[in-house]
Design goal:
It is built from 2 helices and 4 strands. By secondary structure, it is an alpha+beta fold. β2 and β3 (about 50-60) form a beta hairpin. The protein starts with a strand and ends with a strand.
Amino acid sequence: MATVIAKVKVMPTSPEVEKEALKETLKELVENNDAKCRGVSDEPLAFGLYTVFVMVEMEEKEGGMDPIEEAMNALENVESAEVVELSLV
C-alpha cells in the first residue's frame, strides 16, 4: 500500500486557546490513530487568531483521513479541522 501525506488545517475556537497545548493535543491525537505526525506549525490569522497546520503520514486505507479529521473536529477547543492537501508518496 502507498503512504499518504496530508496537511490538516485546524482553527481554534478563540484566540484564548493555548497554542502550544492545542498543538500537543493534535500531535497525540494523530499518533493515537495509527499515523505519524510529521510536523505541527501555526500561522497568525487576524485579531489574535491563528491557524494550526498538522502534517500527517499514514498508510493508505479505506476511510483515509476521515477518522483523524472527525476526531480533531470533536476536540473542545477546535472550531474546525479540514484536510487542505493530500498526496501519495
